[in-house]
Design a protein that fits this description.
alpha/beta, 10 helices, two-stranded antiparallel ribbon, globular, single chain
Length: 371
């Protein structure tokens, strides 16, 4: 017996509409924090984990933050201590997105001297800054803040050129990214570069192709002789910032009161409203139409980040709250966790013990030198 005849499969007529057409990739959606609103935060500690810095910022009532990517007073040497695994970096990025924090600003290592006249120090500084940029990209940072350095026995004009070239070298062989380098002004202590806005403007202009901008510190401005305390002095300083750097090139401000009088040329931060600059000046800064006005949706609002001391538990939370209050935005500020502080009573006690030991060590060394 043969096999029963099988019915023919129905053959459809080809319809061009049935052809596969891949859907275009959707346009990336800006992060939730890029809504044009003013951003307020504080420098938070990465002790224990980079994630801890995010949690601290959230608990302190911030919507932005600044961190170190590694120890700020040690050369990492490019080894394991200076690397962040992709697993840890992704966990950090995901948690930051969940908390809606931004921008994320990383402050570069304090040892970096991009204007160093000493070849060895300059080479090491360029490498260390390159490593900062690599870690910043891994963490998804929006800005990297770096001091321009100090010029020692050389001339300020030579130092400006040196700092510019150092930044160019540090950025070589890095993939394109939205992360932006911001050069920070200084208080003018010793041979530090960047206390004059003209120097800052020269650096920013020369690095326009790398989209380099500036981060201005209020305590540094004041110590360098810019009278931002008075209304007229602040307006004059704003005009000078505009003519030398360009206000649009200053997306981040470090908001710190000063323990030092106007023109004292020493970098000593004080709690907001408790120093020589005063609360009224910070109110003008945070509400000024050219600084504090809301931007367009999809863009980052200007960030104001405190680097104020934490002398007692709760000082960090109080300084963040003071900024929201002086900005007139207390009613929309993120809720802070009651009683939270990066400094605990036990931590303060331990710090005092360490300081006591350090003072004793210095006294013993001083006695030895006299013998």
């Amino acid at each position: 017996m043969g096999m029963p005849e099988q019915p023919l499969t129905h053959v459809s007529v080809f319809d061009p509409e049935d052809e596969y057409r891949p859907e275009p990739e959707p346009e990336p959606v800006p992060p939730a924090w890029m809504d044009g609103s003013l951003r307020i935060g504080i420098h938070t500690s990465i002790a224990g984990s980079h994630l801890n810095a995010l949690e601290s910022a959230h608990k302190l009532g911030c919507n932005a933050l600044q961190i170190f990517s590694a120890s700020p007073r040690m050369w990492t040497g490019g080894g394991a201590a200076g690397r962040i695994t992709e697993v840890d970096a992704k966990t950090f990025r995901d948690r930051r997105e969940a908390l809606g924090l931004g921008p994320l600003v990383i402050h570069a290592n304090y040892l970096i001297n991009l204007a160093a006249p000493q070849p060895m120090l300059r080479t090491r500084s360029i490498q260390a800054f390159h490593e900062e940029l690599v870690r910043g990209m891994a963490l998804g940072a929006d800005f990297i803040v770096v001091h321009p350095g100090s010029y020692g026995d050389s001339r300020p004009s030579s130092a400006v050129a040196m700092a510019i070239d150092s930044i160019k070298q540090a950025t070589r062989r890095l993939p394109p990214t939205g992360m932006r380098i911001l050069v920070e002004n200084t208080a003018g202590m010793g041979t530090a570069l960047g206390s004059r806005l003209e120097e800052m403007g020269e650096i920013v202009e020369a690095l326009a192709g790398l989209y380099v901008g500036a981060c201005l510190d209020t305590a540094h401005l004041f110590a360098a002789g810019y009278d931002i305390r008075s209304e007229s002095g602040f307006e004059s300083t704003l005009e000078l910032i505009e003519s030398t750097i360009g206000l649009e090139q200053v997306p981040v401000f470090h908001v710190n009161d000063s323990k030092i009088a106007l023109g004292g040329r020493v970098d000593r931060h004080e709690h907001i409203g408790k120093g020589k600059i005063g609360a009224d000046a910070f109110r003008r800064i945070l509400t000024h139409p050219r600084l504090g006005a809301g931007g367009a949706a999809g863009l980052a609002g200007r960030a104001f980040l405190a680097e104020t001391p934490i002398d007692d538990p709760g000082d960090d939370r109080k300084n963040v709250a003071a900024l929201w209050d002086l900005a007139g935005l207390k009613h929309v500020a993120p809720a802070a966790e009651k009683g939270y502080s990066m400094l605990t009573a036990a931590g303060k006690k331990k710090a005092a013990e360490i300081q006591k030991v350090e003072i004793g060590r210095k006294k013993r060394e001083a006695k030895k030198e006299k013998r």
